[in-house]
Amino acid sequence: MQDEEISPTQAAIVLELQNVSKVFPGVIANDHVNFTLRQGEIHTILGENGAGKSTLMNVIAGLYPPDGGDIFIDKKKVRFTNPRQAILHGIGMVHQHFMLVRNHTVTENIILGTPQPPVLDLKRVNQVIQELGDKYGLTVSPDKKIQELSVGEQQRVEILKVLYRGAKILILDEPTAVLTPQESEALYKIIENMVAEEHSIIFISHKMKEVISLSDRITVLSRGKVLATLDKEKTNAKELAKIMMGDEAVRAMPVSASSHSKAMEVVVRMEKICADDDRGHQALKDIDLEIRSGQIVGLAGVSGNGQAQLAEVLSGIRAITAGNYYYCGESLQHPTVNDMIIRGLGYIPEDRKKFGIAGHLSIANNFLLRDHKNPDFYNQQFLSAHKVNEYGRVKMEEFDIRAASEKMQVGLLSGGNIQKTILARESSRPLKFLLASQPIRGLDVNATAFIQQTILKAKSEGLAVLLITEDLDELFLMSDHIYVICRGEIVGHMPKKEASTERIGLMMTGMKT
């Protein structure tokens, strides 16, 4: 009689945390966390921004020593003070932002930092990497340079790096955040291959569909504490959101962009727009784009295909080299940032900390960055701190910005609260056009729902909205019309009703459909 197959949730425990704590000045990042990972299991960690996920992963990977509690690998107590010790115990972490040397080859990146003989047999190393790639479906050419690879191929190199070092426990931090749907599907297959070889995966993701589809078990963190650990078969997306954020977050989730709001006049029209990047290379080529009032236009594309330069042209940061930019019917030749602000542009930049806020200033003062000449905030010729702070308190309540005081430095807030601060500032002025670049990237369920609801409200009030996103779920939820950009060119556009995940995904890679 054959032995019954052991399910991942019944297999041997390969990693256990008992009452693990990590404290930073004034913050308890992890508070007596208990967690187990089994052999051949995919165990997802879910939690809002600031819940302690990243800190916990850094403790497991040896980047931070715990301040309390114990870690066990295969029932043996261990203590890591650096990542090398974790690697020697079979733990490897694949970070969301790749740690690769772009002008080195795949092989050079994989063996970097590993012990090698005085005379390196590169041919033999290439063969080992090739065999490892074939075994797990991580197809990539060992002698190619990183800068020649797609984003999906670069991620495969990161996974090969930890497998080459002998990792049996892999931590994958938001691994599909910058991938096309096709690349994401390929990654899911790679994960299945690793699990089949008895590797164990700790998976971090904000995408509920992905979490439910891939996981064997799901642990929910909040404010550094474990709220629940559930088998996938015994839960669903709504229950997980409720555990993580409460009933209000579930009720706040937007259903979809309404197709009933009538698009009116053209607010933005671009004809054959070209622009260079900071190195003088062409970043945008013959861009044609149209956005009407009361309409959300979604722009899809893999990161680094010209989205940032397009946003900078629209907002007056970057000059065009050719083409015509029309705003509310007027041709703009060399608009400045201040020109666009006066004309009613609201801008949520991709890099919220670098370009969206003045981190050293208070929350209240950040609300005034676009409106600092408003006489309502002055007593005679002097800026009134009382009026500024009073306005700050009102906006914090209106936009659910959670902080001890409006006088707190905005740079100390979580990502979600920073994004709400930017949105509050930009949408509290008379606007005609809202430019939102990656507005929910890295945000939890609650912050995501609030940002999306606010953008949908702006659309219903007649604003023209350009939504730049790599998240196709967000694209289909929010957009009325979808454009796709690849290598600085618009490769297609269509109403949302004519779009599909497969079609958009293929276009994102440059394929015509």
Task: Outline the structure in words.
The protein has 513 residues and is an alpha/beta fold. The protein has 18 helices and 22 strands. The strands form 5 sheets. Strands 6-7-8-3-9-10 form a 6-stranded mixed sheet, sandwiched between helices. Strands 16-19-20-13-21-22 form a 6-stranded mixed sheet, sandwiched between helices. Strands 2-1-4-5 form a 4-stranded antiparallel sheet, with helices on one face. The protein is globular and about 70 Å long. The relative contact order is 0.11.
Summarize the SSE layout with pairings.
Layout: E1 13-24, E2 27-38, E3 42-47, H1 53-60, E4 68-73, E5 76-78, H2 83-88, E6 91-94, H3 106-111, H4 122-136, H5 151-164, E7 169-173, H6 181-196, E8 200-204, H7 208-214, E9 217-222, E10 225-231, H8 237-245, H9 247-252, E11 266-276, E12 282-292, E13 295-300, H10 307-315, E14 322-327, E15 330-332, H11 337-342, E16 345-348, H12 352-356, H13 363-366, E17 378-379, E18 382-383, H14 385-398, H15 415-427, E19 433-437, H16 445-460, E20 464-469, H17 472-478, E21 481-486, E22 489-495, H18 501-508
